[in-house]
Design brief:
Keywords: Hydrolase, Metal-binding, Zinc. By secondary structure, this protein is an alpha/beta fold. The protein has a domain of about 60 residues. The protein is built from 12 helices and 15 strands. It has a 7-stranded mixed sheet. Strands 8-9-10-11-14-15 form a 6-stranded mixed sheet. It has a two-stranded antiparallel ribbon with strand order 12-13. A hairpin with a 2-residue loop joins strand 1 and strand 2. Helix 7 crosses helix 12. The longest helix has 21 residues. The protein binds zinc ion (ZN).
């Protein structure tokens, strides 16, 4: 997530905010469990400091991974091409192309150079940017791309401060780009205005494609920075409701770390073990692990398994007499989250 940025020293010129520098320098490694009320989160999400750190993050990642953090594998169905673009140290942007008209949309363009290179290589016209949420590692490329593609529209929730937003979307609203149809679904929790986008595969004989941003990862889930466990649970249920054949295209390459954590929670889950073995192989060769399907996610992703007695037992949680089932599942989700944060902090 955005906390990658804090692993680096802050920029030299911090202007009037320079009194913050000692605080930032003393911040330990990334991946601390930071509540949304914390000062660091507010700085990242709501001030120019967040942008400065994002710029540094982009620069570092370009040096460290000149060809991207992973080997992208395009996914093609007759009439549609989905190109994952590995950006920063573990983010994915996605270029979605209507191959008939060469019109394209990009999901979460964080590094505008990498996205522009893909646009040029594919020879497509950028019609739309879809932003899942405001965090810079998902929206930081909007500005530059809009300058280069003056007719490009920017979609997202009006509840998130998305740079250059031109077309605020409501829950369940659809947008067409050439022959591509995307449906926006409000999925608050990680941020108040978080949205996911579902590409209708029908016209192409393909399953639906879910671009999940920081709602859902392979075997993982985004931190609920701006929502309660109940809110996050409801948003995850929206995703699961899309159906088992739906392809999951997440905002980050977190598969190895998420599955390793999951395997410590559920010690006897063959589906999980099998997926972990496959992911280890993929990552040894720097290959991308997406897409998975929502069907398989429900067999190993602990954040989608809050209803499973095996997981509840492993966590030492039991439904209280008269406790609402969803309230109990939210409690399970909260405990999985707590353990994941502890796991990452060590
Ligand atoms: Zn985020």
């Amino acid at each position: 997530g955005p906390w990658q940025a804090w692993a680096y020293p802050p920029p030299k010129s911090m202007g009037r905010n320079s009194q913050l520098q000692p605080l930032l320098v003393s911040t330990p490694q990334q991946c601390l469990p930071l509540p949304s009320q914390s000062l660091l989160y507010s700085l990242y999400a709501r001030t120019r400091l967040g942008y400065l750190f994002y710029q540094r993050q982009v620069k570092k990642a370009r040096e460290r991974y000149p060809h991207g953090h992973s080997v992208p594998q395009p996914y093609c169905f007759p009439g549609v091409k989905i190109l994952p673009i590995p950006v920063l140290s573990n983010n994915y942007s996605y270029l979605v192309i209507d191959t008939g008209s060469s019109q394209a949309a990009v999901i979460d363009p964080s590094d505008p150079l990498a996205v522009q290179a893909a646009i040029e290589q594919e020879g497509v016209i950028l019609e739309a940017i879809f932003c899942t949420h405001k965090h810079w590692d998902h929206s930081g490329g909007n500005e530059v791309l809009c300058q280069q593609h003056s007719s490009c529209r920017v979609y997202g929730s009006a509840l998130d401060a998305i740079p250059r937003l031109t077309n605020p979307l409501a829950d369940r609203e659809t947008v067409t780009v050439g022959r591509l149809t995307f449906e926006a679904l409000a999925t608050p929790g990680h941020t108040v205005g978080h949205m996911v986008y579902v590409l209708d595969g029908g016209p192409f004989g393909s399953p639906p494609c879910l671009f999940s941003g920081d709602l859902l990862f392979l075997a993982g889930c985004g931190r609920p920075f701006e929502g309660s466990p109940e809110t996050m649970l409801a948003s995850l249920d929206v995703a699961v409701g899309l159906g088992e054949d739906t392809l999951l295209w997440p905002g980050h390459e977190y598969a190895l770390e998420c599955l390793t954590f999951a395997s410590l929670l559920e010690l006897d889950n063959p589906a999980l073990e099998q997926k972990l073995q496959w992911v280890v192989q993929q990552r040894q060769e720097k290959r991308s692990t997406c897409p998975s399907t929502l069907g398989e996610e429900q067999t190993y992703n602990p954040f989608l398994r809050t209803h499973q007695p095996e997981l509840q037992e492993a966590l030492g949680l039991w439904q209280a007499g008269g406790e609402d089932p969803d309230a109990f599942r939210a409690r399970v989700l909260k405990e999985v989250r707590r353990r994941k944060d502890l796991y990452q902090a060590t």
